[in-house]
Design a protein that fits this description.
The complex is a heterodimer of chains A (183) and B (194). Chain A is mainly α and 183 residues long. Chain A has helices at 6-17, 21-26, 46-49, 53-61, 75-93, 97-109, 113-125, 129-143, 148-155, 163-172; strands at residues 31-36, 41-45, 67-70. In chain A, strands 2-1-3 form a 3-stranded mixed sheet. In chain A, 32% of the residues are buried. Chain B is mainly α and 194 residues long. In chain B, a hairpin with a 6-residue loop joins strand 1 and strand 2 (147-150). The chains are: A mainly alpha (183), B mainly alpha (194). The interface between A and B is large, with 47 and 46 residues.
Chain lengths: 183, 194
Amino acid sequence: MSSSTDSPTLTTETTQLSPQPDTETAKPTKKITLKSSDNQIFEVEESVAMEFATVKSFFEDSPSTDTVPLPNVTAKPLSQVIEFCKEQIKFKANPDEAQKKKYNAEFVTEKSDKDLVDMIPVANYLEIKDLLDVLNQAVADRIENKSVEYVRSFFGIDNDFTAEEEAALRREHAWAYEGVDED
Amino acid sequence: MSSASKALLVAAAIGGVEALKDQGFCRWNYTLRSLHQHAKNHVRSVSQAKKLSSSSSAMISNIFNEEKAKQAEESLRKVMYFSCVCDEKRRWSDLPGDVVALIFSRLCAPDCYRFVAVCTSWSSFPLPKIKKEFPTLVYLKSDGKLINFLSPLLCCSTPEIASSMYKNIITSDSTNLSSDIEDNELDWLHKEAS
């Protein structure tokens, strides 16, 4: 459920993503509407939407539709994913590996743990390989050398082991618990 | 078929997928795809229902039908919504195995061996094989002439753990690590000789 604090930012993001008048007149491109599970509407250029393999196949199946419902995607991670894909398209048109690396690094460093974690299922569902690679690496960097408890809270995972099961696993791989960072 | 019962069918189908997921029969990705498919079907069925209702307006009360379609749409939206909320809460413990595996592949072996204790679904992921190129510790032998390479995994504090780890290396990767060390020594000897 989207909290009340989220709503204002979501609205502004939606407005930011709507077509800019100057680009509209300069190059009329087809717009595709994406609808998140919390009923936020995102209007993106076709080229951006085609970065999402899932959306692309949706259009191949039913070309006449203009709104794609994304029942597993909430607005916030979706807006961030769209932001990433827009930049990637610029790099596709204008390849600059160094700039791209810099952008990708900045994109993840400025995100909170929760934002990263929320984006991964979205990138996975929409099948955006580049983003998934970037996110996985960023998450791996953040949980590297951390404790099991830290990783649980990082991903919001509940411990579903019994005390005995967990103790057994810890004993089995006792060597892996040496020199772990403080939480 | 009325739109309400259609919507119920779709809802039941989603419920079925959810149940399957609970039993661990289908993977996360598959569930998503199914949900997506259902969403598409839903869009079609609702529009079909609307077409039907407008064409039969002469015979049946149109308003009544529209009302029903709206209700069905609303109930379906709720079902979709709840299934999403459900996913939100537990998606990382039954996260797509392949995604966690991708993250694991970017971690060092000790991290992976430790994180299997995070939750039961993570404990079922195959642990990475300890590769030949696993970073080795470089040290000088006491005479100072020979450079040695040693896997840090073998330098554990107690011999007991070291031996069990050694067993892990042999069972997970048929390559004998000690021969690697010897190979490395030989390489260096060759380099020193040349």
